[in-house]
Specification:
mainly beta; three-stranded parallel sheet; 20 strands; about 0% helix; about 55% strand
Length: about 170
């Protein structure tokens, strides 16, 4: 559980992922004024990389100005497991995250779910595709005040690339 503090200016080696935080399994919960910024992963997950058995919960804080390597996925977050976002920011004006696929977040987990009922995924860049979100597999549920805007994807999907299932409720 991280409620406040900063994880910044970290980098991984040639084959590394999760420059800011790497969680193989278990639960990572981010809230309050937590800041995960300016991290650089040689491969995937500039800010955070989560394995297939990891759960990432975002109830606040900000994840910005992170980068995954030249052919990397998930500038802000690479998620192999479930993700729940109720508040907080991934990106932001002048401080977006960058990756080839999924500048803000890349969702890899088949049979996994990304629930977003609040918060912002903004101003992220997919140098290939999926500026805000790149979904390889799984289900995305967007509801309430979820905001995905001002993202860019060089080859499509500025906001989202959907390869499996998307549900949008209310909002």
């Amino acid at each position: 559980f991280i409620m406040g503090g900063t994880v910044a200016y970290n980098k991984t080696s040639e084959k590394g992922q999760g420059a800011g935080i790497f969680i193989k399994n278990g639960t990572l919960e981010i809230s309050g004024s937590t800041s995960i910024n300016n991290n650089w992963a040689a491969v995937h997950g500039g800010g955070i990389a989560g394995g297939a058995d990891a759960v990432i919960i975002i109830n606040g804080g900000s994840i910005f100005s992170n980068m995954a390597g030249q052919n990397g996925q998930g500038g802000g977050i690479l998620a192999g497991g479930n993700v729940n976002m109720t508040a907080g920011t991934i990106g932001g004006k002048g401080q977006g995250n960058t990756a080839l696929l999924g500048g803000g977040i890349n969702l890899l987990g088949a049979d996994k779910t990304f629930n977003m009922s609040g918060g912002d995924i903004t101003y992220n860049t997919g140098t290939g595709s999926g500026g805000g979100i790149y979904q390889t597999a799984g289900t995305i549920n967007l509801s309430d005040t979820a905001n995905i805007s001002h993202n860019s994807g060089a080859n499509g999907g500025g906001g989202l690339i959907i390869r499996d299932k998307l549900n949008v409720f209310g909002g």
